[in-house]
Amino acid sequence: MTVMEAAVKNSVRGIAAECGGACSCATCHVYVEEAWRQATGEPEAMEEDMLDFAFDVRPESRLSCQIKVTEELDGLMVRIPEKQF
Amino acid sequence: MSVDIIKTDAVIIGAGPVGLFAVFELGLLDVKAHVIDILDRPGGQCAELYPEKPIYDIPAVPIVTGQQLTDQLMEQIEPFGAEFHFNERVDSIEKIEGGFRLVTDYGTPFECKVVVIAAGGGSFTPKRPPLPAIEDYEDRSVFYSVRKMDAFKDKDVLIVGGGDSALDWTLNLQPVAKSLTLVHRRSEFRAAPASVQKMMDLVDSGNVSFKLGQVTTLHGDDGQLTGVTVKSPDGSTFEQPTEVMLPFFGLTMKLGPVANWGLNLEENLIPVDTEKFETSEKGIFAIGDINTYPGKLKLILSGFHEGALMAQAVHRIVFPDKKLIFQYTTSSSNLQKKLGVK
């Protein structure tokens, strides 16, 4: 389960996830809260490339389809950009 | 200028895997098809979103990439000689005597007996950066594609992005533009290395100006851009004067004109029956990700199944006097002849 999948399954608005989790569209862009950045880690090269197609990219930007939900992420807080395009 | 009307049995809207396989199922039943797609090549999402990503759930094909699947479908449907119309989007569908009349955004008119909508998630359209008031500038000084390079002659041009489109247009427009500035959020590019090298050379020779950052605000009057504010990676901002801006952030799927065709819709999907996969309009069918029915799964294999059943129903419309005899490709010499294997 990824953060994107959890959001989509629970009808959380603001995550489009057009490509369905293939790291191919950059429409599941989120900002990870500072306190959680270490736990979620840094984007891999492919994800960093894909972030070029997101808007208002910040150091805390991630694609939520690439964040796997684990025990350690219990309580994770992410914010959704104003628009996913 | 009068345009010749293209007349055919079936028009398939969408050249993704499901639209392509519909050519096969219709072809086996002698139904001739034309295929229209907004992209410049077949494959739909498979070609646009994940050409290199493996797909694992195509029956009997343990692993295949989006591009391979597309290529193999194109090979499989080759005997049926369907005609493809790329870079065109169907804008209108109108009921006429004995069928339908379709017109694309390029003005190409089609007349057909049935329409098969295999449009997946809708049409791919360029992503619009969510900048305040950007719609006021669109098509006047903000463009998402280049139709005529001449329109940028002797202009100060700003290109935003770091992918192949951004790089290609940087290289193509630099010789015609008065000045060319490329703005990208980082110094790495997700583009063909040869293009990146050529762009770097132009920066070194002073012909292209490259600036790190992201556009945050547009400035101008009455649709005419005068400049933009760019935020640098360190958080500081600067003003970049420009007359035109070309943002390249990839494509996104929008339902598009499908919504205006008078069909019943449920949350941007087209409800169909599960016998014929026909929409609320007789003679218009919907298969693949764009349709919905109880138990629907958005799988390529479901779209293939839907195409096979749709073709049976279409045969009854196109050949009302012919009795359809169900045949297998393994044993029917008639089908094998159509496939060109006998």
Could you write a compact summary of the structure shown?
The complex is a heterodimer of chains A (85) and B (342). Chain A is of the alpha+beta class and 85 residues long. Chain A has three helices and three strands.
Unreliable segments of 5+ consecutive residues of chain A: none
Largest sheet of chain B: 7 strands, mixed
Order of helices and strands of chain B: EHEHEEHEEEEEHEHEHEEEEEEEEEHH
Largest interface: A-B, 20 and 23 residues
Principal-axes geometry of chain A comes out as globular
Distance between the termini of chain B: 45 Å
Strand content of chain A: 5-15%
Taking all residues together, what is the mean pLDDT of chain B? 95
The radius of gyration over CA of chain B amounts to: 23 Å
Mean pLDDT of chain A: 94
* Strand runs of chain A, count: 3
Write the layout of secondary structure elements.
The complex is a heterodimer of chains A (85) and B (342).
Chain A: H1 3-9, E1 29-32, H2 37-40, H3 45-50, E2 61-63, E3 78-79
Antiparallel strand pairs in A: 1-2, 1-3
Chain B: E1 6-13, H1 17-28, E2 33-36, H2 45-48, E3 54-55, E4 64-65, H3 66-77, E5 83-85, E6 90-96, E7 99-104, E8 109-117, E9 123-126, H4 134-137, E10 156-160, H5 164-173, E11 179-184, H6 193-204, E12 209-212, E13 214-221, E14 224-231, E15 237-241, E16 244-247, E17 251-254, E18 270-271, E19 284-286, E20 291-292, H7 300-318, H8 333-338
Parallel strand pairs in B: 1-2, 1-8, 2-5, 8-19, 10-11, 10-16, 11-12, 18-20
Antiparallel strand pairs in B: 3-4, 6-7, 7-8, 9-17, 13-14, 14-15
